[in-house]
């Protein structure tokens, strides 16, 4: 498997030397794009956290470091009902996955718009308790496409669900210049 990856990276490098666009870039390449600062990521999170959408859901965005992000949701009664029990409803978990996977491009460039294109989720166990933590990170990125993974943890830190997703960068900046918050 490793030799196949080396061939792909080698082919991409050859295309780039010929002036053709690079379509894939592994996050562990020699010359990754410069990462935004924690201050830039914090401004991005602050803007998102002020949005009506997140306030309605009750979630908040955090960047514990420059390689991952976290969505935190304090569980309210309207979030429950999974399996006809007091477990968190799967739609809430799916919303949190869309939220955190969709925000992973900010780890590369928080000034550009992005949109989730695809999510693949697996629900491993019911999420009980009063806290949902969704962590996400970038697996690889190239051109306008970001491939990311996430997991949802309960209040004890146990993994309840996992997700992989694809997000597309836009060439347009956020309307405000640094935040996706529009309301």
Q: Brief overview, please?
A:
By secondary structure, the chain is an alpha+beta fold.
What would the keywords be for this entry?
single chain, 183 residues, alpha+beta, Thiol Ester Dehydrase, Chain A, 7-stranded antiparallel β-sheet, two-stranded antiparallel ribbon
Descriptive overview:
By secondary structure, the protein is an alpha+beta fold. It folds into two domains: 29 residues, no CATH class; 141 residues, Thiol Ester Dehydrase, Chain A. It is built from four helices and nine strands; from the N terminus they run H-E-H-H-E-E-E-E-H-E-E-E-E. The strands form two sheets. Strands 1, 2, 3, 6, 7, 8 and 9 form a seven-stranded antiparallel beta sheet that branches. A hairpin with a 5-residue loop joins strand 2 and strand 3. The longest helix has 16 residues. The radius of gyration is 18 Å and the shape is globular.
Structural domain tally: 2
Alpha carbon gap, first and last residue:
46 Å
Number of contiguous helices? 4
User: What's the CATH class label of the largest domain?
Assistant: Alpha Beta
CATH topology of the largest domain: Thiol Ester Dehydrase, Chain A
Strand content: 35-45%
The topology string of helices and strands comes to HEHHEEEEHEEEE
CATH homologous superfamily annotation of the largest domain: Hotdog Thioesterase
* Helix content estimate: 25-40%
Q: Radius of gyration in whole Å, from Cα?
A: 18 Å
Q: Determine the structural class based on helices, strands and strand pairing.
A: alpha+beta
Report the sheet with the most strands, covering strand number, pairing sense and barrel closure.
7 strands, antiparallel
> Whole-number average pLDDT?
83
Q: Can you tell me the overall shape?
A: globular
How many strand units?
A: 9
For the record, the CATH architecture of the largest domain stands as: Roll
**Uncertain runs with pLDDT below 50, 5 residues or more?**
1-32
């Amino acid at each position: 498997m490793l030799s196949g990856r080396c061939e792909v990276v080698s082919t991409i490098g050859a295309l780039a030397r010929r002036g053709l666009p690079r379509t894939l870039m592994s996050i562990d390449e020699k010359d990754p794009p410069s990462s935004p600062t924690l201050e830039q990521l914090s401004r991005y999170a602050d803007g998102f956290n002020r949005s009506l959408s997140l306030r309605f859901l009750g979630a908040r965005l955090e960047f514990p470091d420059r390689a991952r992000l976290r969505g935190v949701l304090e569980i309210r009664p309207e979030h429950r009902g999974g399996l006809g029990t007091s477990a968190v409803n799967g739609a809430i978990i799916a919303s949190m996955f869309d939220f955190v996977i969709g925000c992973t491009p900010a780890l590369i460039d928080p000034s550009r718009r992005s949109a989730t294109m695809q999510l693949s989720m697996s629900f491993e166990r019911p999420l009980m308790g009063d806290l949902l933590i969704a962590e996400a990170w970038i697996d690889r990125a190239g051109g306008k496409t970001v491939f990311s993974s996430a997991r949802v943890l309960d209040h004890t830190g146990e993994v309840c669900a996992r997700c992989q997703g694809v997000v597309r960068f836009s060439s347009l900046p956020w309307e405000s210049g640094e935040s996706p918050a529009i309301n």
